[in-house]
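Structure (tokenized):
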């Protein structure tokens, strides 16, 4: 998904906005209920942006999988490593594919990132191209934005073509 970037506001930033809004920084003319109302509005706006980012990432993953022609289910040929967090805050996981076909094949693998409660945080598609017959290939799936907390990675759709 080169060039694709989703807008995302991490939970820490959201919490910070709520905390600032609820402490009531006043310019002299605001009352606490106005401050609380503005904070609630900001939280709602950020939640909406987060939801839109996830919807955009999901749509992009679907589009990438739809581009694969004559693909066959390859979920059983895919293994994922342990998710790690890079210095930029994005989550990455190694994707290994095993080509058991008699000829060179490529793989499109959808990786979903979820929190410990099973809630979808992000989804991406990684392509592992031109894996020789009987060999394995690797790629790295990176989240489209910073993810916080413990993140689990799962194989969604996997196609061999």
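Design, position by position:
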């Amino acid at each position: 998904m080169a060039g694709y970037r989703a807008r995302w506001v991490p939970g820490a930033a959201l919490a910070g906005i709520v905390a600032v809004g609820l402490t009531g920084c006043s310019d002299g003319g605001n009352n606490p209920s106005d401050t609380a109302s503005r904070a609630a509005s900001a939280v709602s706006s950020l939640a909406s942006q987060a939801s839109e980012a996830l919807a955009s990432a999901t749509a992009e993953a679907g589009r990438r999988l739809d581009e694969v022609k004559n693909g066959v289910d390859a979920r059983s040929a895919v293994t994922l490593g342990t998710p790690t967090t890079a210095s930029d805050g994005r989550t990455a996981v190694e994707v290994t594919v095993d080509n058991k076909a008699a000829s060179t094949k490529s793989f499109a693998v959808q990786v979903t990132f979820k929190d410990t409660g099973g809630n979808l945080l992000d989804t991406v598609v990684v392509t592992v191209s031109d894996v020789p017959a009987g060999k394995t290939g690797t790629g790295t799936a990176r989240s489209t934005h910073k993810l916080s907390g413990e993140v689990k990675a799962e194989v969604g759709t996997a196609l061999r073509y």
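Reviewer-requested clarification: The helical segments are 11-23, 32-66. The radius of gyration is 20 Å.
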